[in-house]
# Entry
Amino acid sequence: MIRHTTALIMIACMLLSACGTKDESTSELVGSSSGSITPTQEQQNESNANDTVETQTTDSPSSTPTSTDAHSDQESLDDEEISSTEKEDTGESSGSQATENPIEKKYHMNSNYYIKPNDKTSDSKVVLLTFDDGPKEEKMINALIDTLDKHDAKAIFFVNGYRVKSHPELLKIIHERGQVVGNHAWDHEDLKKMSSTAAAKQVTDVQKIVKETIGVEPHFFRPPFGSGNNALKATVKKNGMLYMTWSNGSLDWDKSTKNKPEKVIQNVLDQLNPGSNILMHELPWTVEALEELLSKLEQKGYTFVDPRSIELEAR
Ligand SMILES: [Zn+2]
# Structure
């Protein structure tokens, strides 16, 4: 009987390792085409698109294309209040049980996407760290997490579904190394320009693939370019997630910071406030900047909020 079981285990191991090899080779192939550090067409498009929209939120009000986003952010303040009447908390807690032991919800997000302690007497000098647009490359993800670990910090990795589909093994790394996966829609497109049905599919398809890959659904959603509307927010809520954009943009996606980690750090520090919700991306210069950035934040007395300790209702 024991021998029989051992034989079965050995067969299972052989099968598993065969799968692993296959995954790796696929990922390398995909990685070399779409996830490389030198901007491929896809990345180029993405950062161009980012340029247009994300500038205004973080940077100066350079009118034309940005106005949509700034507008969307303002809109959201009202929307949040409307949606907060519903109580969708239940979906969240049942899902998070699967992650690990329940973590006390000590923080909440306000309507400007800042993270605030529930207990007003406790330290408000906290930041939320987020990395968007992955998962792209194993090397970058591991380097980011190595640095996060060194500082005992957790972050949200907002992923796109199409990237998860190409690199499910990278999503597993993020999850298995104890970081938090967020939903950044299936494609990196402006959901506001889609029908509400199409936009909803962008959200739910990511919930599905993430659940299939790591066994739990995301509890946080950030729309590409920070662009959303009421219908999208309702979908996000229905799926048990907290909707957020950001309150501190590192501009690491912008041409001005390309290959300049020191600029990424400076941009974050320039906009730093208690509760800053810091938008960064899975980019080589951000990877390089992170160690010094986290050290500087600590020197200024800031600590890093564990995303799992944030309530899933904004208030
Ligand atoms: Zn993005």
